[in-house]
């Protein structure tokens, strides 16, 4: 991608505290069939919040709330066992998923959003709205959404086109609302 992709593997957690926490909780996360997306320690008021973001490793299924709740309890128990934050009197644990409009920065993020409408900003170009139809090793295939000629007319799409990851500056899922009559 034109923007620097986020580090993967152990390089994702660069400071010593988050690396230690990640090493401790990754087995707990993977035991639940999930992927540790992000980990952040942030001071808020008199306490510190440990934010843990998890996602499915592949596919398009979503992480349900029961799984997030069970994982939160398992991570809390694991952290209490090891006392990895002894310098903190207390901390709050937040376990969540990345959210629908997070930036897509890795090929696996695109794979998780097959079929969805994306806003893609190509290097040196204007943002486009396009339906993601395929993900390849170094590119994606999309069908650009054409503006409707009149309000209420069905949406039309251009022929599929391939865009290399190296030429994508930014990409986000566009939340779509549909209704049935």
TrEMBL record:
Domain Ribosome maturation factor RimP N-terminal: 25-100
Protein's UniProt keywords contain Cytoplasm: yes
Keyword RNA-binding: no
Domain spans labelled Ribosome maturation factor RimP C-terminal: 104-177
Keyword annotations from UniProtKB, A to Z: Cytoplasm, Ribosome biogenesis
Pfam families listed in its UniProt record: DUF150_C, RimP_N
SUPFAM superfamilies, sorted: YhbC-like, N-terminal domain
Top-level lineage group: Bacteria
Record localization: Cytoplasm
InterPro entries: Ribosome_maturation_RimP, RimP_C, RimP_N, RimP_N_sf
Cited function: Required for maturation of 30S ribosomal subunits.
Homology family: Belongs to the RimP family.
Record's protein name: Ribosome maturation factor RimP
Source taxonomy: Bacteria, Bacillati, Actinomycetota, Actinomycetes, Micrococcales
Gene expressing this chain: rimP
């Amino acid at each position: 991608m034109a923007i620097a992709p986020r580090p993967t593997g152990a390089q994702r957690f660069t400071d010593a505290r988050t690396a230690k926490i990640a090493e401790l909780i990754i087995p707990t996360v993977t035991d639940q069939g999930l992927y540790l997306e992000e980990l952040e320690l942030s001071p808020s008021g008199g306490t510190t919040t440990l934010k843990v973001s998890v996602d499915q490793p592949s596919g398009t299924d979503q992480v349900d709330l029961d799984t997030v709740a069970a994982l939160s309890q398992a991570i809390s128990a694991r952290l209490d066992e090891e006392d990895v934050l002894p310098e903190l009197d207390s901390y709050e644990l937040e376990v969540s998923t990345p959210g629908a409009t997070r930036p897509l920065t890795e090929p696996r993020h695109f794979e998780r959003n097959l079929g969805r409408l994306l806003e893609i900003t190509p290097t040196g170009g204007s943002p486009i709205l396009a339906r993601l139809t395929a993900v390849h090793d170094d590119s994606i295939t999309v069908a650009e959404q054409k503006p409707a000629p009149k309000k209420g007319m069905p949406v039309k799409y251009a022929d599929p086109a391939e865009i290399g990851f190296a030429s994508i500056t930014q990409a986000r899922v566009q939340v779509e609302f549909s209704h049935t009559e």
